[in-house]
mannan endo-1,4-beta-mannosidase (Nicotiana tabacum), 444 residues
Amino acid sequence: MQMVKSPMSRKLTRNGGLFYPLIALALFVTFLYLSFGDLLWFSYNKEIEISFVERNGTQFFVDGKVFYINGWNSYWLMDHAVDYSKRSRIRGILQAGAKMGLTVCRTWAFNDGGYNALQISPGRFDERVFRALDHVIAEARKNGIRLMLSLVNNLNAFGGKTQYVKWAEKEGVALSSSNDSFFYDPTIRRYFKHYVKTVLTRRNVYTGIEYRDDPTIFAWEIINEPRCMTDPSGDTLQDWIEEMSTFVKSIDRKHLLTVGLEGFYGRKSPKRSTGNPEFWAADLGSDFIRNSMLSTIDFASVHIYPDHWFHKKFEEKLKFAAKWMLSHIEDGDKELRKPIMFTEFGLSNENEDFEPVQRDRFYKMVLDIIYKSAKRNRSGAGSFFWQFLVEGMELYNDDFGIVPWERPSTYQLITEQSCRLAREHDILPTQTEYLKDFCTRTSV
């Protein structure tokens, strides 16, 4: 059967075969979308204006306004963003955080060796994973959330200092098999400096901004929970912190910097007996005051895990945690003259006497102390829940993790803290219209 060409098809044919180039162009555009669609998407989204957070004495400021933080931990963001099918979870937790009025999320900017490693070996990086971190930062910016990015782990999870020691051993240059050689081996120090420089100078493929120039990043944390138990005097860790903090500041003077301490008082501290949970805490090679005193460190960090530090009844744990917080806020006010951030706090659900209401009481105590500090313009500058997840993430959970909206009483505690901090020091422009409306309708 003979086909009759339409007038349009005859026109296309007469004009030098225009039909086929159009098909080719359409296929090319489709290829661009499939290959780089997420890149193009971000360029068309409305940019949220966001400014660098600065420090003046014991307080943080944004655009000249005092900034007290209601924050949370979701360490898993980069790891999840590697898999495109899981990226909805990143968007989900950041949108939920914004809806609750939270302003800063603390997360890992490292994965050394192993599965989905950002740093495959010293100086070798997986671009696919780097793009995942790019995505996390860009998505946070879209939702008005700032990020506190940690650069290495003292623990073994996601590689940590042990992985650096293994790399040095493999090359036959390690001074010691102890993972504390991370702090004093010159080769390992060089590995870490190269890593830090690569991350800080990374240009985000979605935003086009180098990390060191991006105000979405609230601060850098040098190392999560550093301990150097082979030198309880604290000298080794102190030297390392001084060297690495100076190195970070030589590359990036725009961002705030903290060590990543748990908050224990060292052997030379007058609070080693009265401030620590137990005697062992003075022999971990860290010292809250000494490590945080350096001019290159902008604020001090503290963690709160009384049920991991000693075995006592809940009421005693609660009493100690309050004393622990107030002691460090006093240090910020009188000794350090810097903000104090409680960057991890949690209560385990594996305690023998655990009841969900205990967790709410613990959370409320932490949040109340931060609020009172904000109300009095003191150094207790913020707190970060450990940890928040979304549904279906059981493999990433631990005995502290929560999906915050699954327990209404917990959700209310979180949002009320956001509201009362906002009432004391104004809601930031990046906080959502939802929060502005919610806080005007809710009495705290």
Summary: The first strand starts at residue 54 and ends at 56. The chain has one domain: 52-440. The chain has a mean pLDDT of 88.
